[in-house]
Amino acid sequence: MPAPGHTGVDYEQRVDFDRLRRYRLERAKAALESSECAAFLLFDFYNIRYTTQTWIGGALGDKMTRYALLARGREPVLWDFGSAARHHQLYSPWLRPEDCRAGMLGLRGAIAPDAGLMESAVREIKGMLADAGLAGQPVGVDIVEPAFLFEMQRQGLVVVDVQQAMLDARLVKSADEIMLLTQAAAMVDGVYQEIVEQLKPGIRENDIVALANKRLYEQGSDQVEAINAVSGERCNPHPHNFSDRIIRPGDQAFFDIIHSYNGYRTCYYRTFSVGSSTASQRSAYTRAREWMDAAIEMVKPGVGTDDIARVWPAATEFGFPDEMAAFGLQFGHGLGLGLHERPIISRLNSLENPVEIVPGMVFALETYCPADDGFSAARIEEEVVVTEDGPRILTLFPAQDLVVTNPY
Which of 15, 41, 60, 336 is 20 to 30 A removed from 119 (C-alpha atoms)? Predict the structure, then answer.
């Protein structure tokens, strides 16, 4: 899997962004054509990026103000935050200037619906559908504020769920998407090398989080979504966060680095012991690795996600009362523009509702094993590309055996 670098060059074939944009829009249009909908109205900012090839920061991108309309036989129309629309007109030539419009719906209710912004937006969308000869047909929406949904219904629009169709469209990754996912993982490979060098008694969990954020942004990350840093007695149960806890001699510590490069994300756990390791820590790591290797061995076209989930232990085998309580510990999830795409693999949902594995899927597999000392735990994650010949691993920082950092 190539990770050729952050820039384009004239002497190698790297990511072809025009091809990437065409691929994503064509898949979104195909999903629309195979649906009952006259149009997709998209608020999910990953779906907006997938169809319009635009992005603004999460501080504004997740406030339910940006939206895009993809109507049958038409190119996408984007409503964006204030001057961002003007920026798209200047720098996003794959969109017609008239299809980049300023929009505002309320910033998650901060502007009350009584102000009329939602009413006028729905009226505009209805008019566009009527002009396209699509009046009266269902409109698919992915995620939506209740007030906007109620306004659509008040104005007579039939609203259906389109998130399922968009997630299906995003399921199979192109060569360009896989290259971006590989580059994102390669950036984390290097961060883990620096973590190993710095992980010693006296450093704090939040110091590691700061180090990782700084290094990723220096390398060109466009968003560090989250970093889990968990050590010592915080390892069991897994809190899915970080704190200001000071790392101590003999701690087990694990980290999850979640960031994106040109929109494409990582979810990449590694576990270490600090200075030395105990038999209990090594045993937990060995079991987590065995569960990981068994899952990877199952990954091939035609296999069901239920087959992968079955190689993992039941929740009751590692200290939880049921699969809901243990969800996310023995776990798989698609990776792409979003952190949790299809397929989702776990004993909670996959045994009864399996999904067939196909070439071009990219997903992360995660295992977790609590140690019998009552507080340590091992957490491992590998990112996998499905090929005709089986799995290819994107996450290359050594994890076959428990790594001891700065040994005494």
Answer: 60
pTM of the model: 0.96
Q: Are 364 and 390 in contact (CB under 8 A)?
A: no
* Length of the chain as a residue count: 408
182 and 310 inside one domain: yes
Task: Answer positive or negative: Cα dihedral of 5, 9, 15, 20.
Answer: positive
Residue-wise pLDDT for 274-288, tens only, equals: 999 999 999 999 999
Give the number of other Cβ atoms within 10 Å of residue 363's Cβ: 27
Q: Is the pLDDT of residue 290 over 90?
A: yes
- Looking at the fold, whether 206 and 250 belong to one and the same domain comes out as yes
3-class secondary structure, 333: strand
Distance separating alpha carbons of residues 336 and 57, to the nearest angstrom:
17
Side-chain-facing half-sphere of 203: CA atoms under 13 Å: 22
* pLDDT number for residue 62: 75
Total structural domains in the chain? 2
> Helix (H, G, I), strand (E, B), or coil: what is residue 280?
helix
pLDDT at 59: 78
Distance CA 375, CA 380 (A): 17
Task: Tell me the CATH number at 222.
Answer: 3.90.230.10
Reading the block at residue 296, the tokens are: 């990877």
**Is 10 among the domain residues?**
no
Domain membership flag for residue 2: no
Model confidence band, residue 174 (pLDDT cutoffs 50, 70, 90): very high
Q: What percent of the chain has pLDDT over 70?
A: 100
Q: What is the mean pLDDT of the chain?
A: 96
Given CA atoms 278, 279, 283, 284 in this order, what sign does their dihedral have? negative
Q: DSSP states of 364-402 as a string? A: EEEEEEE-TTSS-EEEEEEEEEEETTEEEE---S--SSP
Domain housing 326: 175-405
For residue 8, pLDDT beyond 90: no
Q: 58: Cβ–Cβ under 8 A, 6 or more apart, which residues?
A: 45, 223
Establish if 323 belongs to a structural domain.
Answer: yes
Buried b (16+ CB within 10 A) or exposed e, 137-151: bbbbbbebbebbbeb
Return the closest-CA partner of residue 159 out of 170, 177, 144, 175: 144
d(CA 314, CA 296): 18
Are residues 46 and 71 part of one domain?
Answer: yes
Closest CA to 13 of 176, 225, 169: 176
Domain end position, chosen among 134, 166, 198: 166
